[in-house]
Amino acid sequence: MRRRLRHRALGALLQLGLLLFTGLAFAQAIDPLPFKDHAQEVRFQALTRELRCLVCQNENLADSNADLARDLRHEVFDLMQQGKSDDEIKQYLVDRYSDFVLYDPPVKSSTVLLWFGPLAILLAGAVVVVVTVRRRGRAAPVAVQDEKPNDEGDDW
Hints:
By secondary structure, this protein is mainly α.
């Protein structure tokens, strides 16, 4: 009887510990920053959504929990506190990490393939389909029509 109570108490403590650990893990994802006002916070959120996390694939700085993303969020916040504009902050990050840090990179010679590559591949595929259909249309044998009715006695 005592053993059973001890096991239940141990199980309850384990569940409570897991619950607290889970809450602690979520609490670490929240990174409070001392914004001057709500407008600055909205600007910060918009800017960090336009910047790519360099560690996580397909995540922006606002959503990433990586240590580097947290450091970059603090860097963006510090630059905002220094009075830098959004363009200046983006340029600062591009100078350090290249255009990869931007979700919407500018059209330059180094990004032409990124912007127009999918369209070029789509057009090349359309050309291949049209050429293939035309070749098959020319090579198809002309159907010869029989004058005799094809009646072999099967009436379905």
